[in-house]
Specification:
- The complex is a heterodimer of chains A (about 450) and B (about 400).
- In chain A, helix 12 packs across helix 14 and helix 16 runs antiparallel to helix 18.
- Chain A has a domain of about 150 residues.
- In chain A, strands 7-8-9-10 form a four-stranded mixed beta sheet. Chain A has a three-stranded mixed beta sheet with strand order 1-3-2. A two-stranded antiparallel ribbon of chain A has the order 5-6.
- Chain A contains 20 helices and ten strands.
- By secondary structure, chain B is of the alpha/beta class.
- Chain B folds into three domains: about 60 residues, no CATH class; about 55 residues, no CATH class; about 180 residues, Rossmann fold (3-Layer(aba) Sandwich).
- Helix content of chain B is about 35%, strand content about 25%.
- In chain B, helix 7 links the parallel strand 9 and strand 10.
- In chain B, helix 7 packs parallel to helix 12, helix 9 runs parallel beside helix 10 and helix 10 packs parallel to helix 11.
- The radius of gyration of chain B is 34 Å and the shape is flat.
- Chain B starts with a strand and ends with a helix.
- The chains are: A alpha/beta (about 450), B alpha/beta (about 400).
- Chains A and B meet through helix 1, strand 1, helix 2, helix 3 and helix 7 of A and strand 2, helix 1, strand 4 and strand 5 of B.
- Strand 1 of chain A pairs parallel with strand 2 of chain B.
Chain lengths: ~450, ~400
């Protein structure tokens, strides 16, 4: 009987021939229980925290109700790590291997992934494991309560990072150096050489320290780790570890539809062109493909969510058909989901896929609102805005150590859920140890301040 | 086990066969247990609240209680729920078409009811040992433990091994001792024989008296027409907690459930709380029944006796002398008598018949506790007062 490893070299040879370019992949065949944990933790080995236990239980329940099935989990890196479930059929695992090669190609070429790789290296899975061990050591040294308090705060702010900044970014300059920069500005130099312009006297040296932060700071984890007045070093390390993992997860989050679509496109194509596969295995694999890449659950006519596999797959087929594989490769390198959906989900395709927008009222009524292409695009993208979290920044670090956060409620359209926000502030205050405040809007849209204590 | 796959051009990928130790990975389970620990702590904070639910009290005999709890949520910043949530879907349908009608009542649907976490509301049941719960309770209320009676009259006889003798029944021959004696003797004798009669050692038994560790609790409840359903629930909670308070101290506790109107009867525990009677109240009937029990079943010499009595305080005035007389006879046999009068706030300041009788007896018998209450919270106050008073009594007596 053939096993999956019989086909791997030939599938890979085919993939390289078709132009897939990827770091090698370490495949491991693991039991379902392990797979679920990997899916829940987001990394093969990650720091312990009770909230993962809750997610794990949700996952168990969902699985026991037959709502979800995990075929594979893949971690970009060099090498990439991919896990296959041991009770998948041979056909399913062949499909999954082809799928993973698509992911590996995406991860090596997409600019968000390569940028992260340049900043953090290619061994994040190993970093995370090492960090998990350090945190376990911290538990032994400082006690579960204290470590858990830090993780409560850091993980609650997990997505509040500034992914546009560097992973390793320098601290703010201690003094504002506006004058020197102004003098060095080439435009200003040329301007001053114009006839009739006098040399402006150098502004007196600014004696005061720059305010902290000099501008609204959206990287909460970074700010807390570096400017928390009473944090101990091991606590700062935990904040920075969570931040690094968050940077790692960001490309996966920001390119979800593209990435799953790309992998689905390639598994379909690889299987189609793999003439060495036995006929029945091919048929079974294609059946598994259509189970994953489908718009709605069996026997249903509508879905209230867009399946990223199906949407991405359809879009890539559409792009390759219209513009060729080279153009598709360029899109794959340069875009994230925002650019991908806005630039490449056209009206014709949206109609073909039957995409619509709907409104779900609090009384439970759900109504189709329309099929306008711009609204469809924005409805698909809305949950992916700003890493999926409200926009919150550090607005001020006061002299007494009070941390003042601000929420851009005008931009986000409404205020925060106050009860949860108060609980997050309470987590944060335990670590920050000085007062913490947050400005947002209440249900009426009026300014509202939450304070802890 | 892993196997390298030969690959032309570029580094090959690897595929490893199943590694069995992954089965031992249980981080999910570990973090789930930690979550449960946190839930337990949270429940512990609210122990009073949930133990006063009637469910807990009825199931008490099972030695565990099941407490429904909600999963903890790790809070994150999120926007408040909008009036209407927009989304993208896929399928057939025209603009304005209703895919799902409004739900009759928000909150009926477990998923939409509360918070709307999107993950649905998952509740699960944690099992707690009654003893643990009571330990928390005692910790929280800082209740002292009960003291057994100090009097020498309380005793059980028991046989214990004590020492050895050269004579005795064959069955008590201690071979090890005997051989030891023989070895010692042979070591100093010039021409030793293997065994002599002098080597034999027999275990001895002696009869010793030990203080009784048994307790008996008599619960007496006024079930006359004036005691309503709410009063019963309070009485039940009180009895349950009092019983467990006694159980904490004594390994073996026997109980008797007595109800009375103008007459008194003994009931099984199940029937006890369902009993209701009509008509007047004659408390002397139940005190006499207690006296009978102390004579027939609960010998005061062998039992630490407790009587807890709950009533609304009303008693026929012509019964006053009879009740007082019965109590005077009963009180010397009891470790403690706890009386809870369940009365609404309106009647709080007037003195009732029962209160008057017991109040007078309190001068000679300090081991009487009188408390009054109409709400759940009063039961806690009563319980605390009783246990503290009891501890002071025991201290004074000791």
């Amino acid at each position: 009987m053939s096993t999956v490893s019989d086909f791997v070299p030939r599938v890979e040879a085919l993939a390289r021939r078709l132009g897939l370019d990827y770091h090698p992949v370490d495949f491991e065949i693991v039991p379902m229980t392990f797979m679920m944990e990997v899916a829940v933790y987001g990394l093969p080995v990650r720091m312990p925290h009770w909230s993962f236990g809750v997610r794990y239980m949700h996952e168990l329940i969902r699985r026991s109700m037959g709502h979800s099935r995990i075929f594979e989990v893949m971690f970009p890196g060099d090498p990439c790590h991919a896990y296959l479930v041991s009770n998948n059929t041979l056909a399913e695992n062949t499909l999954v291997i082809a799928h993973v090669l698509g992911h590996a190609d995406f991860a090596r070429n997409n600019q968000l992934f390569t940028r992260f790789e340049q900043m953090a290296g290619t061994h994040i899975v190993e970093h995370a494991a090492a960090q998990a061990h350090r945190i376990e050591a911290a538990v032994a040294e400082h006690g579960q309560q204290r470590v858990e308090a830090v993780l409560d705060a850091a993980l609650a702010l997990e997505a509040h990072v500034d992914v546009n900044a560097e992973l390793h970014r320098p601290l703010y300059p201690a003094h504002p150096d506006t004058t020197e920069r102004a003098a060095a500005d080439p435009f200003r130099k040329r301007f001053q050489r114009l006839p009739g312009e006098k040399e402006t006297p150098a502004a007196p040296k600014e004696p005061s320290r720059a305010p902290l932060p000099p501008n609204p700071e959206y990287d909460l984890l970074w700010f807390i780790a570096h400017y928390g007045p009473e944090l101990e070093d091991w606590e700062r390390d935990i904040f920075l570890a969570v931040r690094e993992e968050s940077f790692y997860f960001h490309p996966l989050f920001a390119c979800h539809i593209m990435n799953e679509g790309w992998a689905s496109y390639w598994h379909a194509r690889l299987l189609r062109e793999a003439d060495f596969l036995p006929e029945n295995l091919y048929v079974d694999a294609i059946k598994a493909h259509s189970d994953v890449v489908r718009p709605f659950a069996a026997k249903q006519q509508t879905a209230l969510a867009v399946n990223p596999y199906h949407l991405g797959f359809s879009m890539w087929e559409h792009i390759v058909e219209k513009q060729g594989i080279e153009a598709a490769r360029q899109v794959c390198r340069e875009e994230d989901d925002f650019g991908f959906i806005r630039n490449y989900l056209d009206r014709g395709l949206a109609e073909k896929l039957g995409l619509f927008t709907y409104e779900a009222r609090q009384d439970g009524e759900i109504k189709i609102t329309g099929r306008d292409i711009d609204e469809v695009r924005e409805a698909i993208l809305a949950p992916r805005f700003n890493y999926g979290v409200p926009r919150i920044h550090v607005s001020e670090l006061r002299h007494d150590g009070t941390l003042v956060l601000g929420h851009d409620h005008a931009g986000d359209g409404r205020g925060l859920d106050l009860e949860r926000a108060a609980r997050v502030l309470a987590y944060l205050q335990r670590v920050w140890r000085r007062p913490v405040a947050l400005n947002t809007a209440d249900a009426q849209g009026a300014a509202h301040e939450i304070k802890c204590p | 086990m892993s196997q390298d796959v030969p690959f032309p051009g570029g580094q090959p990928s690897r595929i490893s066969a199943e590694t069995s130790w992954y089965d031992l990975f249980s981080r999910g389970a570990r973090d789930w247990l930690r979550h449960n620990e946190k839930v337990r702590d949270a429940v512990r904070q609210r122990v009073r609240e949930f133990i006063s639910s009637p469910d807990v009290v009825t199931r008490g005999e099972g030695r565990t209680v099941l407490v429904p709890v909600r999963l903890l949520e790790h809070a994150r910043f999120r926007l408040r729920d909008p009036e209407a949530q927009a989304g993208a879907g896929q399928g057939e349908g025209k603009a304005g078409q209703v895919l799902r009608p409004a739900q009759p009542q928000p909150g009926d649907d477990g998923e939409n009811g509360r918070g709307g976490t999107g993950e649905g509301e998952v509740t699960f049941v944690l099992e707690f040992k009654i003893d643990d719960v009571l330990d928390w309770l005692w910790d929280e209320m800082k209740l002292p433990d009960l003291k057994p009676k100090q009097s020498t009259a309380v005793e059980d006889a028991e046989l214990v091994r004590e020492g050895w003798d050269r004579r005795g029944a064959r069955s008590r021959l201690d071979r090890r001792r005997t051989v030891k004696e023989a070895v010692k003797r042979r070591a100093v004798q010039e021409h030793p024989v293997p065994f002599t009669d002098d080597d034999l050692r027999f275990r001895q038994l002696v009869r010793r008296r030990k203080p009784a560790t048994n307790a008996a609790v008599m619960f007496a409840l006024d079930v006359s027409g004036s005691m309503g359903e709410a009063e019963r629930v309070l009485a039940k909670t009180f009895f349950f907690l009092a019983l467990h308070g006694v159980r904490r101290q004594y390994p073996k506790v026997e109980t008797a459930f007595l109800a009375h109107t103008v007459e008194a009867w003994e009931f099984s525990e199940e029937d006890f709380f369902r009993t209701s009677g009509t008509g007047g109240t004659t408390a002397s009937s139940v005190f006499k029944l207690c006296l009978d029990l102390t004579r027939e079943r609960f010998d005061p010499a062998r039992y630490n006796l407790y009587l807890f009595y709950v009533s609304d305080g009303e008693n026929a005035s012509e019964d006053r002398e009879a009740a007082a007389a019965a109590l005077r006879e009963l009180l010397p046999e009891l470790n403690y008598l706890g009386y809870v009068e369940i009365r609404s706030a309106s009647g709080r300041f007037s003195e009732t018949e029962m209160r008057r009788i017991l109040g007078e007896l309190q001068h000679d018998h300090p081991a009487i506790g009188i408390q009054q209450g109409a709400r759940q919270e009063d039961i806690w106050t009563a319980l605390r007062a009783f246990f503290q008073q009891q501890a002071e009594q025991a201290q004074a007596a000791g």
